[in-house]
Amino acid sequence: MSRPLLSRKPDLLITIFFSLHLFFVTCVDCLDLWPTWLSSSPYLPFFTLGRVLRDFYLETYQDKLVLEQPDWFVVFTWCELLFHVPVCLLVIQGLVKNSPLVPLGVIPWTVETFFTTLLCVVEIWGWDDRSETIKWGLTGCYGPYLVISAALFVVMYGRVKEALVLQRQQLEKVKGQ
């Protein structure tokens, strides 16, 4: 019988992270991709909260990537909607059920997230029309995704390695009988 999620602290933290990430991707980052009738509906308060958070973010950090939306950034946004959302749902479900397949969803997410976020940070530091204070603020917003994706890669790689070692040991045990 598998242990409940509440007793698996690392999995609980990862579940909380992916749940929050799902909200931010769906209701903040991808807000412009949804039809206006849907994202402006008074019956969907999470979009209203997303709009408030996004307006605060733009006012505070003046993020040109979100304000001007270069084509490559729009592609990254679509990747969030079409890749991150399904992965988040599968990872959350897998963690709740204690599935051994969770790393197979998380590892590709970590690689994609790390490199797309890194490109955004590099772009931010190339801007001539934003102060260093703004650039550091934006780095503080994007940077945690670099750290979290790298850390999750290490954790999930370790889980895959551990499972493969265990599988090898079991095969050797069976061959020895």
UniProtKB/TrEMBL annotation:
<dbReference type="InterPro" id="IPR033118">
    <property type="entry name" value="EXPERA"/>
</dbReference>
<dbReference type="InterPro" id="IPR051987">
    <property type="entry name" value="Sigma-2_receptor-like"/>
</dbReference>
<feature type="transmembrane region" description="Helical">
    <location>
        <begin position="104"/>
        <end position="127"/>
    </location>
</feature>
<feature type="domain" description="EXPERA">
    <location>
        <begin position="10"/>
        <end position="153"/>
    </location>
</feature>
<feature type="transmembrane region" description="Helical">
    <location>
        <begin position="72"/>
        <end position="92"/>
    </location>
</feature>
<dbReference type="InterPro" id="IPR016964">
    <property type="entry name" value="Sigma2_recept"/>
</dbReference>
<protein>
    <recommendedName>
        <fullName>Efficient mitochondria targeting-associated protein 19</fullName>
    </recommendedName>
</protein>
<dbReference type="GO" id="GO:0005789">
    <property type="term" value="C:endoplasmic reticulum membrane"/>
</dbReference>
<keyword id="KW-0812">Transmembrane</keyword>
<keyword id="KW-1133">Transmembrane helix</keyword>
<keyword id="KW-0256">Endoplasmic reticulum</keyword>
<feature type="transmembrane region" description="Helical">
    <location>
        <begin position="12"/>
        <end position="34"/>
    </location>
</feature>
<comment type="similarity">
    <text>Belongs to the TMEM97/sigma-2 receptor family.</text>
</comment>
<keyword id="KW-0472">Membrane</keyword>
<dbReference type="Pfam" id="PF05241">
    <property type="entry name" value="EBP"/>
</dbReference>
<feature type="transmembrane region" description="Helical">
    <location>
        <begin position="142"/>
        <end position="160"/>
    </location>
</feature>
